[in-house]
Amino acid sequence: MVAVKEKLAPFHILVLIYMTQTGVVILSLGQMLAQTFGINGWLALPFYGVIVTANLLLIGLVYRMGRGKSIFDIMERRLPLLLLSPLYLLLTMVWSMLACLVSMEYVLIFQMIAFPTTNPVWFKIVIDLLAYSLFIKGIYTISKASTVFFYLTVWMYLFSSMLFHEYSWNRLTPFFFQEGDFALPGMSGIYAAFLGYELVMLLFGYVDRSAKLMKLAIWANLLVFVSYIYVSMLVFGFFGFGELREMQYPLIDMFAYVKFPFIERIENLLYGLLLFTMLATMAMYYWSANEASGRLFPKLKPSYRGIALIAGTFFVGLIPDTLAEVNEWLTWFGIVEIGIAFGLPLFLIALLLIRKEKEAPVHA
Amino acid sequence: MRNARWRRLPLPLLLIAAFALGGCGDQRILERIGFIQSTSYDLMPNGELKIAVAIPRLEAESNEKREVLSTTAPTSKQARIKMSRETSLQLVSGQLRVTLLGRSFAEAGIGNQLDTQIRDPAISPLMKIAVVNGDAEQLLNQRYSQHPRTDRYIERILEKEAGTHAIPKATLHQFVRDYYDDGIDPVAPMIRKAGKNIVIDGIALFRDDRFVYRLPPQDAMIFAFMRSRFKQGEIGINLQHQGAPREAVMVTSLVSQRSVKVSGSGPGTTVTVRVALDGTVLEYVGGLKLGKPKDLRKLERKIEAYVSGQAEAMMKNMQRAGADGIGIGAYVRNSMSYADWKRTNWRELYSQIDVRCKVKMTIKNVGKMK
């Protein structure tokens, strides 16, 4: 596993970050926007885009000040491991739990649609095995797989053109942000739809410095932003605010409306393919957790740590067993992750201010 | 080498096992499943629902091409459990194409039923909704010997007529969407039994989830002009005035464009619906010569006067019934500020506003003859 010396190509980085960011949340994004921001809630997305970009610039500062070195190296050269271990433990826990919950949510929606009485644990095991065999191969393989997943899923946007005839600008209304509840869980839930970009911090050691990592991350986020705006605008004009507020997964219902002469109920296909975007997100979070745990237990083989992570989160993931509970857990872990996305770079900048990174590797 | 290969084996094996075992859960064996294709709802005098489902039968050994079950129960899902006791098939609603609402049921309000159907992930949002002028179960239960199997007959007639805009398309999605929208009310086609056939019987207009007004079939095309723009349609117009000689025209290949303008405010609100029609005249009986451009202009003016007159009269009726199937409310809403709209009692205002219809007819050609 240590032999990963291949560097990531710019396009692969772009796709990797994009795929990590998009996930199951896209299914309910329109509803969350309607409930939180009210009429024409999709217009709130640019604010999110700006905040994420600001966060990325912050991470970019770490990248520049740390001269592209791994964030773990930056921390360990300045603080003793003992002091850092609670932080590493937290990162490992949050990242692996997020991976687990994202897949749990996917499984529960899948179960609702297709196999209402089958025990979801079966699906969870299969998906965990898939994710394990992917993330254990390291970042280079994850990024290559993500590129394949990207091509497998990106054409679905084309389907949306078949829904234009049911779209009405009238339904958008000229009102803005009325009747929203502006509740914190909703707001953070929408932010969670963008999460995944913060893992770019862990790519520091793996990319060529000429690859302009941060620029690519900002572009990837822009891509996510554009796709979210497009999808949300579409559901607002397709369903109207009144209905959207009452729905759970507007995107599934919207795609259920696509019909070909030879096939109906295409949403089942769509949902099957969403597995790939979810898998990319999941693999990246598990991989990140594995990286962090590697600093805690450097003696342990990465594959054993990976098994421990999957198994550990698997059993914790069994505690919330309804969709509503999983959503609640996701909200809380999402909030912690937002804290990490902002807090960790700030912490690193503080460390880097105390002692600057030199161009040549320093042996402390 | 061999060792490595052995070590790799368990994972694929586990995956295969997991997939295979996963299939043992929710089994679906085609021959044992009853795909409900149509369902009907009627309200009984005692307040219970009378529900019927039609299922196509595929086995060779059965003579019947379909199975119709009906029962009464307080809710539709309870009815399904009851009906399930009468059949050898496992009832599923993934192939549900048409829901028929009996008039009695539609008049009492169908909100709860809509909620059940939209909640069920198995039911397609493309499912069609139609109101039956009479008893829906009887219409569904009968065999119409000169037509295809009843459920398919109903589905095809609805699809074909919606294709020429003689009736509005009413899918579950469209119905529910308009139900939740505060600027428009849902509509659905209306059908009834006519001897050996089923016949389109106009358009059912709803106020919220309640059927309140039936638009007669001859107004259906006018309704389509007012509701949205479309291509493909035809209208037969009787231009004869009392005492005058016979005059009638038939316009086909209609292309209709619509724009809506709102002016004024409060009870003085005026809504102007402009309709631009393009079409071909293939039949005309009367005193004008179709070959003469001057006469053709005259005919255009006559059609315009007829359509706008009918449209305004139709609007008056709809306003009286309090059903905004056209979606005038959305335009009025969009012309206001949010606070004004929330202050407005739209139901009340709707009955007071002045809706005008201006029509521009262009006859593109008159067929092969002069």
Written overview of the protein:
The complex is a heterodimer of chains A (364) and B (370). The mean pLDDT of chain A is 89. Chain A has 364 residues and is an all-alpha fold. Chain A is built from 15 helices and no strands. Chain A has a single domain, classed as Amino acid/polyamine transporter I (Up-down Bundle). In chain A, helix 5 (81-113) runs antiparallel to helix 13. Chain B is of the alpha/beta class. Chain B has two domains: 30-215, no CATH class; 217-370, GMP Synthetase, Chain A, domain 3. Chain B has 13 helices and 15 strands. In chain B, the strands form three sheets. In chain B, strands 4-3-2-6-7-8-9-10 form an eight-stranded mixed β-sheet. In chain B, strands 11, 12, 13, 14 and 15 form a five-stranded mixed β-sheet that branches. In chain B, a hairpin with a 5-residue loop joins strand 2 and strand 3 (49-56). Chain A binds chain B through residues 39, 112-119, 122-123, 125-126, 129-130, 133, 166, 170-171, 173-175, 178, 238-240, 242-243, 246, 252-253, 256-257, 259, 264-265, and chain B through 11, 14-15, 18-19, 21-22, 25-26, 94, 121, 124-126, 171, 173-174, 176-177, 179-183, 327, 330-331, 333-334, 338, 341.
Task: Give a topology summary.
The complex is a heterodimer of chains A (364) and B (370).
Chain A: H1 10-21, H2 29-37, H3 45-65, H4 71-76, H5 81-113, H6 120-135, H7 139-154, H8 156-159, H9 184-192, H10 213-239, H11 241-244, H12 250-255, H13 267-296, H14 302-317, H15 323-354
Chain B: H1 2-8, H2 10-22, E1 33-35, E2 38-43, E3 49-56, E4 66-73, H3 76-84, E5 90-92, E6 98-102, H4 103-108, H5 111-119, E7 128-132, H6 136-141, H7 150-163, H8 172-180, E8 187-194, E9 197-207, E10 210-215, H9 220-227, E11 230-231, E12 235-238, E13 248-263, E14 270-285, H10 293-321, H11 328-334, H12 338-343, H13 346-352, E15 354-365
Parallel strand pairs in B: 1-5, 2-6, 6-7, 7-8, 14-15
Antiparallel strand pairs in B: 2-3, 3-4, 8-9, 9-10, 11-13, 12-13, 13-14
